[in-house]
Amino acid sequence: MRQAKPCVVILKTGSTYPSIKEQFGDFDEWFVRGLSPGLDITVLNTEAGELPGDPTDWDGIVVTGSPAMVSDREPWSENAATWLAQAVHLAIPVLGVCYGHQLLAHALGGEVGYHSEGRESGTRSVELLTSAQDDPLFCGMPDIFSAQLTHKQSVLSLPPGAVLLGRNEFEPHQAFRVGKCAWGVQFHPEFSSAVMRAYLGVQAPDLELEGFNAQTMIDSVTDAPEASGLLERFSALVAENKTD
User: What 3-state class would DSSP assign to 33?
Assistant: First the structure.
C-alpha cells in the first residue's frame, strides 16, 4: 500500500505588491514551487482568519512573509501565534519566513520590532554559526551563502532556549531553531532573483529617500541557490519525520 504524501499547510500571512503578483503570482505560489512536489500542500489565508485546526493534522507547517508588522499584534496574527506555539510544543516541523520568522519568535516569547538601522533589502550574505553544523535543516550548507532579503522589522531578541544559527552584519538573527524542528529565517528562500529585482523596483522611491542607490541594489542582485534549496531541505525533513 502506497503511503500518503506528507501533508503540509502554508499559512499565508499577506500578499505581495499588486504589480509583482500580476507578473509572478503570490507568496504561496512561490513556496509551492520551491517545496517538493512529493508533498500534499494546503494553503490557508491566515490574514483572513483561517487557521488549520489541530496542529497534529499536519506533517509540516510553513509561514509566509507579509506586508503586515508582527508588532501591530493584529487579532489574526496573535491567533496564528498561539496556534504556532501549540504546533512547536507538539514537535510539528515548522518553517517561518520573514514575517513567519518574526511571528514564530513572538509566539514563543521573543521580541519583535523595527530594526534600529532601518531596512535591509536586496541580495545579501548570511553567515552560519558553528551551531548550524549539526542542525537537521542547515547541516552541510556553506558557511556563507547569498540570500534575498527585504524587511524593516526584525527579531530583536530570540525566544528562551532558541539556538541561533545564522546572522550577518546588519541582522544578528537571520536564522534560529526552537526545539527539535521549528525554524525561523529572516531571508526569503522562496524569492527568485527576478522577484527580488521586482521588489527593489517597486521600493525604489522609498529606497532613494532612505539614502540607498536603488539601481545599484537592483544591479547587484544575484541568484541565491543555497538559500532557495532550504525549501527542498525542509520538504525532505518533513517526509523523513513522517516516516520515523
Answer: helix
| 101 catalytic per annotation | no
181 in active site: no
The CA-atom distances, in angstroms, between 61 and each of 74, 91, 114, 117, 135 are 21, 11, 26, 31, 18
**CA atoms of 173 and 165, how far apart (whole Å):** 8
CB within 8 Å of 182: residues ≥ 6 apart: 87, 88, 93, 94, 96, 104
Which one is catalytic: 111, 181, 188, 232? 188
Does the predicted model carry a pTM greater than 0.85?
Answer: yes
The domains of the chain, with CATH numbers, are 7-243 (3.40.50.880)
The C-alpha cell 544575484 sits at 222
Segment 25-72, tens digit of pLDDT:
999 999 999 999 999 999 999 999 998 999 999 999 999 999 999 999
Selecting among 98, 106, 173, 181, the annotated active-site residue is: 98
